[in-house]
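Hi, here's the filled form for the chain we discussed.

Project: internal
Contact: R.S.
Residues: 183
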Amino acid sequence: MSNTGQSASQLRIRELEEQLAAKSMSSRSTHSGPSASQLRIRELEEQLAAKSMSSRSTHSGPSASQLRIRELEEQLASKLKLASKLNKMEAREVQLGIEREEEIKTLLIKSFQLDIAFLVDVTGSMQGPIDMVQEKISHILDQILAEKKGTKIRVGFVGYRDYGEKVEQYDFQQVSEGRDSLF
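And the returned structure, exactly as it came back:
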């Protein structure tokens, strides 16, 4: 083969080496540290560079250049395939992490329960302030429900009276049953 044929082969080898180097650089920039596969890729690149240098200095015949081109193309294809698999695995890992985080948040919200008890003086002389307390309790419950959607709230009320008045007892009640049922 002529010098032109060897020059084209050498240009193709150089082009493939540049593609390998570019792919190697892009895979290095996506990770915080080199993985085992990246270390292997670097090792292969170094071997490739060493072989490339030795083949340039020995001026092997056209068949050797063709073999070298084929070898470089196979290595490039292999690295591209490996990089594609790594990117898919990393994307899946990130997606699984996001899904798990959302699942945990949902479980925390579902498990959040709040019991509130109000203690109020309900003697006859307190009737005016009692009406205001009822409004404030409703406002407090509305505010909690607005800020913490999905929260299960149970409300208790303890009214204390003068000695000898009738005592009424009620269990905690779910707010979802209606605030009106609390009073």
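Let me know if anything looks off before we file it.
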